[in-house]
Design a protein that fits this description.
single chain; about 30% helix; alpha+beta; eight-stranded antiparallel β-sheet; 9 helices
Length: about 625
Amino acid sequence: MAYCANCGLTYPPDKRFCKECGSPLGEDPGAPSPSVSQGPVRCPSCGWTLPQNERFCPQCGARIVSSVPFEATLPGGATAAAPPETVMATEITQRFTQQDFYTPTPPASPTGGPVPPPQTQAFTAQDLVETSTPQVPPPPTAQAGMPAGTPFFDAGQTVAGAPWTPQQPPPGPGTPFPSAAVTEPPMASAPAKKSRVGILVVVAIVLFGIILGSAMVIQRVRAKRQAAQLAQQTQVPTPAPPLPVVTQEAPPQDEKLKDTLGRMNAILVAVENYRSARKKLPQSLQDLGSVMDDTQMRNDGWGNPMIYLVDQSNNTFVLRSVGPDGNKDTDDDIRVTDDSLAQWRDQHHEAIDEWRVANLDLFQKLSSEQFATDTKAALDRKKAEREKAKAEALAAQQAAQQAAQRKADEEKRKQQEAAQLAEQQRLQQETQRRLDEERARQQAEAQHKARQEKMNFVETFGAGLSRWSAPSFETVTEKGKPGMRINGFGLLKDASDWENYTATFDVKIQKEGVNFIIRARDHQNFYFLKLTEDKAKEYPKNSLIKYLYVGGKYLSGPASNEAAGALDIVTLPFKIKRNDFYHVTISVSGGTIRTTINGQAVDTWQDNTFKQGAFGFNCSTVEQATVSSFQMRSN
């Protein structure tokens, strides 16, 4: 068998290195020597004699570490071999050394230098036997008549060929045997089974004792090492060499962060002053003054340029540092916006205040108050200009009054010179003026009355379509109710100068939709609204679509993608069913067009393109509708 002198483990002969510590393997000291004759051996614990090839004692369970056969002192000059206890102690001494146990890290000396490791102490076999020998049951009690200390032999053993009995004890240790050899006859089968059971029990007890003894040995070794270390610590240590001085070239990370926060706050103060003074945000950081021309002033604590973005339409901005990594849109970015400015300052107020105190001059440069000063100067200048203009206006008013007074005096003088002639001319002119004003007033009232009479009427369609300029329109009767079939384009006659009016009518869609013409100057300039049905295919269903037709062209808007030329599409909150009448009201007043369907307001359109114009209807070739109960009134 191969043997590790470091760990004490045995391996097959073909192995060369220990799997636990890697040490080279040597010859097992416990292996039998080929030069020693084979024979019985004695148990080192209880003295039991057993065959040479046994590894454990069947009586007490102790391990037989020596393969040297037992030779008793026999008559004729032969002597017994050395007690196996010596071999066992030697093996234990070889297997248990201080390096097998845990070695703690030596503490540092008071001066900072390392403490010398404790000297390795070997343990004698006696020390190990005292602490690690397991407590095993005592050997069987000798029979009556046997001398004290005499090893116990089972009945049937023979010494020098003579059988032994319990009444015939064998010689004690060191006592010559009657013959030159000790033989051990085979045991009976039944006692052998009992012996095996006893062996297993004893082996378990022995293993427990070994584990307990090993723990005691480890504890003792640790105590000795701690004592040695304590003794070394009391010695005067050698002074440790001084540590090299490391020069810190760059400020720590937190200082760079603090510098970044302070700079950003100073720039934000300047941005706020600029906006307060100019009523707008600066386009870039350079607009904040000449101090920002230096690129170093626009860098953060890590030397990266700060990013300033502005949205003038919404009067908002973003100021951002890319952070230590120098890359945009990463987790370490520092970002401030209009909405988050107050929260950002509250979160970092300690770092901002500390930086401002430590960098007061730089803060004053970056957050210059010139814009606030400019604001006051501008207000003062405007105030002075207003006062000057007011004084000039007062002076001009006084001058005009004086000139008027002079003119009046001159007129008075002239009137005095030719009082009768001037008075007659004045009276004639005054009379003519009054006549002209009265005539104009009466004419305007007549026109207004005529227009009102034209705009306030009810169209039943029973007497034809004399009010309409619509060649393709025709009268129809729907369920006994007269109406007008919409085909093509048609307007009310003599209504191009109508301004504010309300049209109320009932409309039924037979196909696709119908168009309402509003404030039409002619056939190329007007508003119109398209009402679509639930089954429409050419246009969005159930919708009110807005169009503006100027100079014969559509002014398209965002809704052109869904309806060509449309400005906007209003989806109705209800369905427009085919062949059902719907009561529609369209009111035009100023620049507002309101549409109501079945008493529900569906849209309000604001536009000032056309101030006046006629009302009418239109259906394209894919559309068809009928109108009845039409009523028009002025607003």
